[in-house]
Amino acid sequence: MKKTLLFIAMMTATFAFGTVSNEPTIKRLDGSAIAPSEIDPTVTRLMRAAEVTGVAIAILNDGKTTYLKSYGVRNKEKSLPLTEDSVMTAASFTKVAFAYLVMQLVDEKILDLDKPVYQYLPKPLPEYPEYKDLANDPRANRITARILLSHTSGFPNLRAFEDDRKLKIHFEPGSKYAYSGEGILLLQLIVETITKRPLAELMRQHVFQPLGMTRTSMVWEDRFDSDYANGYDEYGRSLGPERRKNADAAGSLQTTPRDFARFMLAVTQGEGLRRETRELMLSPQIQIYSKHQFPTLITDTTDANKSIRLSYGLGWGLYWTSFGKAFFKEGHDEGWRNYTVCFEKSKLGIVIMTNSSNGEGIFKELLETLIRNTFTPIEWEGYTLQPTTSAYAIIRSTKRSSLRRNCSTDMLAATESRRTLS
Question: First-to-last CA distance in the chain?
Fold first, then answer.
């Protein structure tokens, strides 16, 4: 009888004080855990403060997606909710998916990372219309796939932002880091030339299909019409979806939160790559000393990120913490702001995808709260906006951020008329 009364008392206390819960928890970097019910109020509060239309979040634990949820809307005008399978513009997430393909070609010995890329072409590089500006610059002959993937080519991010809109090499290739979409586009030309196949087909057969990314493509497909997101500018105005017709290795990827989480899991596990090749992809090729990532050719330097050994690998940003190495990638286009980071040792990571130009304003607190990642080089990234400020300040700061990024990573379609290289 006494045992029965004791058991009843213990159970009553448990329910009263909430000490027992069957709710699954998500591991964070510091060993603590967070419950899904704790994530919801954090995300909704940040979205409201920063006026973010929609956001999808995937959290990876031990090689599995332990949390995947979408918030907000994919179409504000029709009040359609954003879903985990809504097709969104990946922006510069495209570059790491492309890098994965390139490393497979390296595995297959189809591409040599250190062979000058001009040697893969049937005619001199300057005879291609897009590269005629390089005719009198012998440094172009020293550019390799390794240099292009590590963003050390000396190219600007986009030639459209040069005063004369001509492509130039600004420093000795391989000598320092400067993010360049132009470099990725040159590598696309090389890949399509040596394989004799279009990029959209290569990506579908080598990356998307093997990894089960069933709603992902390098171009817009009619089947996406059933569930896609519009992008929204800093004022909340719809920019619609990006219906790309031409594959662009620097920024045309259309994917879903679920599919891109699958891709990140594949990267953490090394699916489709030899172990040595994956390690090479995520090994530092150049240390970064620039004060900011954008504009890409600024000369201001800093030692602020020396403690985390901020570097660039082959397609990926890298840094080191007390929890080991992290690899990351941003995606930035008008109406779309994305971020992903994964920690190598623990296989703990996060994917954040938003359909709002205000999306970057919530990255810092999401990273710190949801996975306890306090190591992100926020200042270098340009993610300094705090979502607790007024909406007017958010809009103003976001516009400054957009300008500072020199149109950032994915204005290729708008500024260069969705050009293709052949």
Answer: 85
Q: Cα separation of 38 and 372, whole Å?
A: 14
- Dist. CA 344–CA 413, nearest whole Å: 33
The model carries a pTM of 0.89
Q: How does pLDDT run across 81-111, given as a tens digit for each residue?
A: 999 999 999 999 999 999 999 999 999 999 9
Long-range contacts of 35-41 (CB under 8 A, 24+ apart): 36/67, 36/69, 39/67, 39/69, 39/370, 40/71
Decide: 251 and 219 in contact? Cβ < 8 Å.
no
Assess if residue 211 is contained within a domain.
yes
Q: Which of these, 218, 220, 222, lies nearest to 203 by C-alpha position?
A: 218
Give the CA angle between residues 392, 350, 296 to the nearest 5°: 60
CATH of the domain at 382: 3.40.710.10
**How many distinct structural domains can be found in the chain?**
1
Residue in 158, 350, 134, 154 with CA at minimum distance from that of residue 251:
158
- 51 assigned to some structural domain: yes
In a domain, 190, yes or no: yes
Structural domain including 220 reads 24-74+89-224+252-415
Judge whether 3 lies within some domain. Answer: no
